[in-house]
Amino acid sequence: MGLEIERKFLVNHVKWATVEKPNAEFYRQGYLLTDPNKTIRVRATDTKGFMTIKGKSEGATRAEFEYEIPKEEAIQLLDMFAVSDLTKYRYKILFAEKLWEVDVFLGENEGLIVAEIELSSEDELFELPDWAAEEVTGEKKYYNSNLSTLPFSKW
Q1: What residue ranges define each of the domains in the chain, with the CATH number in brackets?
Q2: 52-87: per-residue pLDDT in tens?
Q3: What are the positions of the active site (predicted)?
Q4: Rounded CA separation 115/137 (Å)
Q5: How many CB atoms are located within 10 Å of the residue 142 CB?
Q6: Whether residue 27 lies in the annotated active site
Q7: H helices present in 12-153, as ranges
Q8: Out of 27, 31, 91, 143, which one is annotated catalytic?
Q9: pTM assigned to the model
Q10: C-alpha pair distances (Å), 29 with each of 54, 82, 119, 134
């Protein structure tokens, strides 16, 4: 079984604006199923498609199975079957030898920036970049599946 161990942080907008960033990748993602115990997500990036099945979060850990699919099929699945969706730009930043994924949300989630780091264990030590602010790991309103149904602009 695949496991995802991930911590999430809000991003300080002022400090983020000063960061030298690589090119971002556009993500469109939608949910075929959003349930507190499991989600089925389809994602289309600039070049690829993915289908991901995630289990219920227990702390910072949950079961995750991800499969690459043709981008064209991902777009068809999103158009035909997604019950909710969102868009964002993702920046991949290497900081202190760890990969951070920073999502700058668009549409009804515009104004929200969230940074995620995947770890090998829940107690793994890592250094926080100065642009990482409040930790929101486990706060359900920040789950992408929830942002797709109750966006940031409606809080």
Answers
A1: 3-154 (2.40.320.10)
A2: 999 998 889 999 999 999 999 999 999 999 999 999
A3: 31 (proton acceptor)
A4: 10
A5: 17
A6: no
A7: 13-17, 71-81, 144-147
A8: 31
A9: 0.95
A10: 14, 9, 23, 25
